[in-house]
Amino acid sequence: MLLTSISKLQLRRLVALLPWLLAAAVGAQAQAVPNPGENIECLITFGPRADPAWGDDDFTQTFFFLVPQGQRQPVYLRVYDPDCGGTLDSQKGGFDTRTSFSVYGGPGAHSGAGARDPRPALKPIPVTGRLLTEKTFGSEPEYNGKYYTFGPLNPLEGELVDEFKGYVFKVIAKGVSGNDGNVYRYFLSTSAVVNSPVPGGNAFTYEYGFRLPPALRQATVHLYPFVNDRVVSIKQSNYDIDGEAKLQVFSVAKNGQPAAVSGNKEWTSSIIPITDKERGLSLDFRLTSSTKTPNDMVFYVTDQYDSALPFFAVPIGGPPRYRYDIDMKIHR
């Protein structure tokens, strides 16, 4: 009986702590880019001499990191495997690629002209915001499979974005020479030496360039574009999927609506109507593949005004679940 009583007491305590445990788990995921819930292996940015058929259309990628308004302690941006010359990277001949990582804050980092452009190479303009720190990496063994840390960063140095209720830092990864693919990941941390999540932090991008993992049998990647309350329809655009995957859209109102996928070295898009139920929530783009080799590709989503929508590392409102409308009828 004593063991039973203790077990019940422990169970009650566990149930009481469950919301905090879940919040902590989600918070930890939100700091990682890509995050585990997306099932994306890594980000990838090629050098400017790469063939676009390898899966990178513009050799640059921008991510934004959100720090809650109440955070006053310094934060750090940690980049895993920032060099291009190790076992994770995509080698094309001898490694000769250099990649720059630049961190911006201040006014314009997120709100400035072109900051949210998913295809910045088409209309090159000066980068907005204030450059806080940057570093360029080549083939440097000391960074292979290890973290390089930018910071400390004062949260107040980010741009205050009322829509997201926090300060935003912009990080641009850009291939500056060579033709190899640099594979890397990010983590927003309160520590310079370990991955310690920032409470309430998140990350997002308006153009997602990533590596689809190889599948033993089948692999499914999740992308979570956020639909604000002004969206009537969206256009999803993707590049260089090679026709080797199936794309379906899930939400509270969609249960696997098919969407177009691109072939080799081409862009493809399709328009998807948005219902009232879906506004203010995230969609779940599920990309399913059975290919046995990694595949690099790019995604972005725009609304009916051609404004880009953000992909959040952890979906706003949580991963969407389809809600069945059951029509109850009484038969007499």
Written account of the structure:
With 332 residues, the protein is mainly beta. The chain folds into two domains: 32-205, Jelly Rolls (Sandwich), CATH 2.60.120; 211-323, Sandwich (Jelly Rolls), CATH 2.60.120.380. Helix content is 9%, strand content 39%. The chain contains one helix and 22 strands. It has one helix at residues 2-31; strands at residues 32-33, 42-46, 60-68, 75-80, 98-105, 130-137, 147-153, 159-161, 166-177, 181-189, 202-205, 208-212, 219-223, 226-227, 233-239, 245-250, 255-259, 267-273, 281-282, 284-289, 295-303, 311-312. The strands form four sheets. Strands 1, 2, 4, 7, 10, 12, 15, 18 and 21 form a nine-stranded antiparallel sheet that branches. Strands 3, 5, 6, 8, 9, 11 and 22 form a seven-stranded antiparallel sheet that branches. Residues 1-28 and 326-332 have low confidence and may be disordered.
Topology:
Blueprint lengths: L1 H30 E2 L8 E5 L13 E9 L6 E6 L17 E8 L24 E8 L9 E7 L5 E3 L4 E12 L3 E9 L12 E4 L2 E5 L6 E5 L2 E2 L5 E7 L5 E6 L4 E5 L7 E7 L7 E2 L1 E6 L5 E9 L7 E2 L20
Antiparallel strand pairs: 1-10, 2-10, 2-12, 3-9, 3-11, 4-7, 4-10, 5-6, 5-9, 8-9, 11-22, 12-21, 13-20, 14-19, 15-18, 15-21, 16-17, 16-20
